[in-house]
Structures are given as structure tokens and as C-alpha cells.
Design a protein that fits this description.
Elements lengths: L7 E4 L23 E2 L5 E6 L6 E2 L4 E5 L2 H43 L5 H26 L1 H13 L2 E3 L4 E2 L10 E2 L12 E2 L2 E7 L3 E8 L2
Antiparallel strand pairs: 1-11, 2-9, 3-5, 3-8, 4-7, 5-6, 10-11
Helix pairs in contact: 1-2, 1-3
């Protein structure tokens, strides 16, 4: 995709020099151009651009097959929800066992209960505390995995990096694209560059934008 080059006509000053004429041609490369490629090795689901089409920054120009990635994202969300529920249950068990253990300590000091009863209450409290700590650590790595899964899902949507004109459409729906597709036989979803041909005469100069395959 390339930044569009504005077209215009410039009339030269002065009178025509009779039969004298100068013909010249050249190329003006776009000041800003980009080759838009996929970050993932996936099948192209749809391509929403055509050569010569104007696009806006952030506009969706292609979508990749996200069926497997979407399943992974849903799995990551379910794992986070399960981890949060487990952690909540562990927290509740710890909160319930702590006052029981503290009460048993006071009762043992007052010689109301036996040492065996105190040991049992202490074991229950220690087990609840250990379960909570394990569940807390387990929940910490699930959230980053969800973030990665969401970013991967976002990468299945290819967007225009800036306002411009598409000059080469190098992929079709059903093809497989990859991050290094420029060097591989499979092309990227869209690549482009812009050029301008100029034909000048002694009296006027005209320019227009054209694409190069």
C-alpha cells in the first residue's frame, strides 16, 4: 500500500517556442509506502481490497481464518474463570478455618480441649492456607496466557497502517500467508508501491498516478 501522490497540471509561462518540444518521462516514488503482511501462518478468509482502492488508517483489509485461535482464546477465558472460582473457594475455606483454629488455641490454653483436638484444627487451617497459596500462584499465569491469546486473535485481522491507495493485491481468499511471505512463494495479503509518470512539453507539464505490478 502506498501514500497517494496528488495529480495536477502545471502550465508553463511564456510563449510557445514554435516547433521546439521537449519530451521527458520519469518516476516519482511515493514518500511513504508499506507492504502489508500477516503476522501468522494462516489461511486467508477474506480480502476486502482491490487495486486502486483508497483505504483509511486502521481499515480492515483482510481477515485470516481464526477458527483454531478463537477456540484457544475461549479455552484461555474458561481457564481464567475456573482459576478465579477456585481461588475464591480457597479464600473462603481459609477464612472459615482461621477463626476455628484461633478459638481452639484459646480453648486449649483454658484446658477445655485436648492437644489432639488442637492439632486437628491446626492441620485443617494449614491445609486451607496451603491450598489458597497454590491456587493464588496458579491464577497468576493464566491471565497473561489470556492476554497472549487475545493478541493472537487480534493479529488475524489485517489493517491498513495509514491512509493511502492499494496498488498491488497479492493474495486471494483461500491462500496461505505467513510472516515471511514476501520471500516465500505465497504472497502477503496486500503489497503496494506508487509511482508517477511525468510527460513534459515546453508549454505544460502534466502528472498522474499509476501503479506498478
Amino acid at each position: 500500500m502506498a501514500k497517494e501522490v496528488a495529480a495536477g497540471t502545471v502550465n508553463g509561462g511564456g510563449k510557445s517556442m514554435g516547433a521546439s518540444m521537449l519530451d521527458a518521462s520519469g518516476y516519482v516514488v511515493a514518500r511513504r509506502s508499506a507492504t502489508v503482511a500477516s503476522k501468522l501462518l494462516l489461511r486467508v478468509e477474506e480480502v476486502n481490497i482491490e487495486e486502486g482502492q483508497r483505504v483509511k488508517e486502521g481499515e480492515i483489509i483482510a481477515r485470516l481464518d481464526d477458527s483454531n485461535i478463537r477456540a484457544q482464546l475461549e479455552q484461555a477465558r474458561a481457564q481464567v474463570a475456573q482459576a478465579e472460582a477456585t481461588l475464591k473457594a480457597s479464600q473462603q475455606a481459609l477464612d472459615d478455618s482461621k477463626p476455628i483454629y484461633q478459638r481452639n488455641v484459646r480453648q486449649f490454653d483454658a484446658k477445655v480441649i485436648s492437644e489432639q483436638a488442637l492439632d486437628t484444627a491446626k492441620q485443617t487451617y494449614n491445609a486451607a492456607e496451603q491450598d489458597y497459596n497454590v491456587d493464588l500462584e496458579g491464577s497468576k499465569w493464566r491471565v497473561p496466557r489470556l492476554v497472549v491469546a487475545q493478541r493472537t486473535q487480534d493479529d488475524t485481522i489485517v489493517r491498513a497502517p495509514f491512509d493511502g491507495v492499494v496498488t498491488v493485491k497479492a493474495a486471494q481468499a483461500g491462500e496461505i500467508v505467513s510472516p515471511n511471505s514476501l520471500a516465500a512463494p505465497t504472497p502477503a495479503p496486500a503489497s503496494a508501491r506508487s509511482s508517477t509518470w511525468i510527460r513534459s512539453r515546453s508549454k505544460s507539464t502534466s502528472a498522474r498516478t499509476s501503479s506498478i505490478a
